[in-house]
Write the structure tokens for this entry.
Amino acid sequence: MKAEPRTILRFLLEYFDIISELYDTQSKDGIITFETLNQITEKHGFDIKIQLLEYKVLSNVNENYEIRTVYYNLIEFILSEFKPMLPETIEKYHISIAELFRKIREQLNGDKVLLNQRISELSNEIRSFYEMVEKNTISLLNETRELKANVKKVDYREKIIRASRWIDEYIIPLNKILDINHSASIANKLYDVSEFSNKYRLNFDDENTRVQFERLYFQLIQVNDNLLRQSKILTNELLPLIERIRTESIILTGWITFLKNPYKQKVPKILKRKEVTVYSQDTFFNAAEIFEQFKNEEDVYFDEVEVEAEKWIFDKEHYTQKLKENLPVDNFFKWCNKTLKDDYKKVEIEKFFALTSLAFDENLLLEYTAKPEYEKIKINDLTLTVPKIKINNHGIS
């Protein structure tokens, strides 16, 4: 017989000390042995092994136990004791978000019930992605501050290793995930989803789907602000703090090594006082001479000439359609150059690079020659050396 939700919640509240200790054991050892479970329950004076299994707080693993994921995540959230996750774990959301986004675009004119369900699933994936990023940032920040305080008396050499590992394995890869300017980042994919949902929240025949797109769009606006905040914490607070720990530890490790054998090298006179004048004795007269030049100032008038600059906005949909109409394209960069010349009579570097971004469209297939071929393209006074790339529709050779 299934227990009432209120009963389970009251059970968690009443025996939280036991459950919290079981959580600490699993976090440390990865498993809760039969003997450990008995020791913890006997220590607190409550035999609740049957209820822990009946309420599905614990599950059997051979002859041992583990806390079920949903309860483990709940306790982890309550105690704010998140473990840093490798960026590879967060990267899985790029695949799930990209796949759902692709199916939404394909299903746009299909079954509305299935379309709405996929939009809802996409919203859930985006929410899970941000929560995982937030947990990672909190965890890294807490561990870094703990390492800085060195409550556990960690050796200086170990501090260097940890700080270096956090920078190389966590912070730098995580920053790439949050970099909207990086074409393969999740933040960049969310930007594409935001543009798409903004378009169809204002113009779609089914009202329920239109509302779904609107919710998704405003969710992405909030997620974008939150991701920027997490990125700033990583860049402005966490990275300098870890760098400082690493630098200080390297210096202290060097001093400890030196003090172990102080007679091997001559001790530098680091505490010897020495006065140095940072300015010349003639500074006053030199400064007076400079200021005397400005006693008789002449009026100077500046005539500002406003130059009207062309305001150009890249129409991605127009050029995507134009590219697809010309498929297959044997030389993509040459096509970009010719297209701009046909449209504007001259090629500007800003427009050229904007047009080359079409190659990242997931519906297009890029083909390269077995032996790389390069050619030079002249854009005004600039000559670019670019590879020869052939573009087809995805899946069509």
